[in-house]
Amino acid sequence: MGTAERREAPEEGAAAQVTTRSDAGAPGPGAAASGRGPAGARGAAARESGGSTGGSGRKASYRPLWVEEPARRRRLPDPVRTAAVRAVLVISVTLIQAMVAFLCTLAESWLAFPMVISSVVSTILATWGVLDVWVTRQVWNQRNGVVSAPSSTARALRRERRRARRQQRAAQRTQARIRRRGGTGQLSHP
Length: 190
Fold this sequence. Notes:
By secondary structure, this protein is mostly helical. It has helices at 29-34, 38-48, 78-106, 112-145, 152-181; strands at residues 2-7, 17-22.
């Protein structure tokens, strides 16, 4: 079977080159070009959709291999991700040890007993690893994850308190100014 490869041309706006490679048991290039083989069918489909196969001069529409999509969830913080990777490694080693212990037990090998002991120890370490991820996540959330965003009612209450304090300070300044002047120009004193 032949495989079609698409290469982007070095110049901007130039057509993409489509080359066909044939494997050992595949029909030759003539069969692929004539449309008798699977690569020829792809080539014919590319020609019909506007693809360029060498000398036709038509431009092929460049279709990317994948489309970048925004992440649905935010990336884990670095300490949490480190703990998670460590836990996954310990768990995978534990599973491998348990499998080797099981197979050694079936084969009645002398290695069965040490492997069972080591897999028990690894199980304890794997449990510690999972707890480490959980604790690290909780600690990180407690230190960095809480965003202080007060609700609108709390903000409004704080604004009212500030306004009342400002008015109280302004009233105190006015009273102090009146006392300094000695009451001149005032009809009444509060």
